[in-house]
Specification:
Elements lengths: L5 H30 L10 E8 L2 E2 L3 E6 L2 E8 L5 E6 L1 H8 L12 E4 L4 E7 L4 E6 L5 H4 L2 E9 L8
Parallel strand pairs: 1-4, 3-9
Antiparallel strand pairs: 1-2, 4-7, 5-6, 5-8, 8-9
The structure holds copper (II) ion (CU).
Copper (II) ion binds next to strand 5.
Length: 161
């Protein structure tokens, strides 16, 4: 009797697959940084997808121009709710102590239900470096943090609709 118990084999398989998926997520995250710019500047609305898995934003950095409506599509693959709250440090400090259970009234503060997708559209007026964070208990400490850089206007001038 030298056959491997089925349980052992299956556990090893699962571990191997998890490692692969983790590497793939990292690769996609890095590709996401390059893909944040629109293919053709000034060609219309900008859509940026931010997948969420294992309590992390799989796109940890986003770069957008000022003065353009940017639609964020937040896809939550986890079996628990998450948040996407973008802003400066003052915004995050307020939310660390906040008590709002669900965010729906501000485009920069979104709750994404377990297994769900949320969409929000934001036009950033001022250049700067902001962060997006999930402020559900323990999620920021676990690493559910991303960076959003707002650069100057497209083509170096005011944008026309
Ligand atoms: Cu979260």
């Amino acid at each position: 009797m030298t056959s491997t118990p089925a349980g052992t084999s299956s556990a090893r398989h699962r571990l191997g697959r998890f490692g692969f998926v983790g590497g793939l997520a990292l690769a996609l995250g890095l590709a996401g940084i390059a893909a944040a710019w629109p293919d053709a500047p000034g060609s219309g609305p900008l859509t940026i997808e931010i997948p969420i898995r294992y309590s992390h934003y799989e796109r940890p950095e986003v770069i957008v121009p000022t003065g353009v409506a940017v639609t964020f599509v937040l896809r939550n693959s986890d079996p628990i709710d998450h948040e996407w709250i973008v802003g400066d440090e003052a915004v995050h400090e307020r939310h660390r102590a906040g008590t709002e259970p669900v965010h729906a009234s501000r485009p920069t503060e979104v709750t994404i239900a377990a297994g769900g997708t949320a969409t929000t559209t934001v036009t950033f007026a001022n250049p700067g470096t902001y962060r997006y964070i999930c402020h559900l208990p323990g999620h920021e400490a676990y690493g559910m943090v991303g960076t959003l850089r707002v650069t100057g206007p497209l083509n170096g001038g005011p944008t026309a609709e």
